[in-house]
Amino acid sequence: MNIKAIQNLIKFVAKTGVQEVKLEMKDLKLTIKSGTEKIIHHEKIDTRNLTPLPFSDEIEIKSKKVINENKDQIEEDNFVTIKAPIIGTFYRKSASDKTLLVNVGDTIKEGDVLCIIEAMKLFNEIESEVSGKIVKVLVEDASPVEFDESLFIIDPS
């Protein structure tokens, strides 16, 4: 699979509005993820009908929804998602010997420190943009995070 075919596949994913495409061929594994999508969409597509892509394997297209700890669906419209403003390592404590900054169920105010993201040996405090209650922590402590990755779900009510 060449770069042009991958670019065409990315354009196809963006155009259809799905969230994730996984493609597995004999010598290639490719996953393309797009922005958040609230509609569940699941279908199989025969890529022979998609030109100029030079392969004939099937692509399974799925989108995902955020699920809380009890596996109940979260109504995303009612919650605020705090996202990573930078790439780095996510920490739930200000130091290894300290307690967690926030826990699920904690009530927070706008400006409260939720976590620390270490980037290039600098420790950046990530503050809440809203007041409310922590519904879900989406990232494991000491895990790498990417720019705009969802970190917390907050109920602002």
Brief digest:
The chain folds into two domains: 3-62, no CATH class; 76-155, Beta Barrel (OB fold (Dihydrolipoamide Acetyltransferase, E2P)).
Low-pLDDT parts are 36-44, 51-75
Q: What is the CATH C-level name of the largest domain?
A: Mainly Beta
**Helix content estimate:** under 10%
Distance from first to last alpha carbon = 49 Å
Give the rounded overall mean pLDDT. 75
Figure out the total of helices: 1
CATH superfamily of the largest domain: RNA polymerase II/Efflux pump adaptor protein, barrel-sandwich hybrid domain
Q: How would you spell out the order of helices and strands?
A: HEEEEEEEEEEEE
Please state how the strands of the largest beta sheet are arranged side by side.
2-1-4-3
Which architecture of the largest domain per CATH? Answer: Beta Barrel
Count of all domains:
2
- Could you say which overall geometry the principal axes of the C-alpha atoms support? elongated
> Mind describing the biggest β-sheet?
4 strands, antiparallel
Within the CATH hierarchy, at the fold level, what is the topology of the largest domain?
Answer: OB fold (Dihydrolipoamide Acetyltransferase, E2P)
Which structural class fits the helix and strand makeup?
Answer: mainly beta
List how many beta strands DSSP finds. 12
Radius of gyration: 19 Å
